[in-house]
Structures are given as C-alpha cells and as structure tokens.
Design a protein that fits this description.
105 residues, mainly alpha, 70% helix, elongated
Amino acid sequence: MWKRLSVLWVAVKGDARLMWHALRHPEAPGWLKIGAAALVLYVLSPVDLIPDVLPIIGVMDDLVLVPLAMRWLIGRLPPHIRAHAEQRRGGLGSARPTPSSSSSR
C-alpha cells in the first residue's frame, strides 16, 4: 500500500500541490471538492479496476487514471482560481520579493 502511494505521489506531485491550493481558495467550486474526494477514495480503496495483486498491471491503472483525472479537474478550473493556485504552488507569496523588483535598484 505504501509503495503504491509513494509511486503515485512521484507521478502527481506538482498537480497535487496545484489542486491543494485550488481547493483552499475561498471560491473553489463544489465539483472540484467532490472530484478530489473521489480521487482520494479511489486511491485508498482496495477496489480497483485492475487488482493490485497483478505485478505490474495492477499499479498501472492508478498511474494512468489518477493523473488523468487530476489534469481533467485542473483543466476545468476557473482562470482566476487556477492563477491563484499556480502562484501559491510556485511559492510566490506577498512577502517574497520578485526578481524584477530587486533588479530595478
């Protein structure tokens, strides 16, 4: 189980952070919250499309379906929520100086 989660985390790390910041936005749509909850339930559920008992194919459905579903959800975000999430994911907070502001001195 932990190996499965760690392999999946490597595959979706950037998208997961983006989705996390989009979910924390005050205007996050309800369908995004439901979709994220469904993805978490699918990953943690013992029921899969292809059982994990099969050596390689069992993990492949998670490595294909979860990133595709995350990209699909992220692609349907309203532009202002996506821009906010990308800014937060990049670590560009208001307290940090931007490279252009430090070079103008």
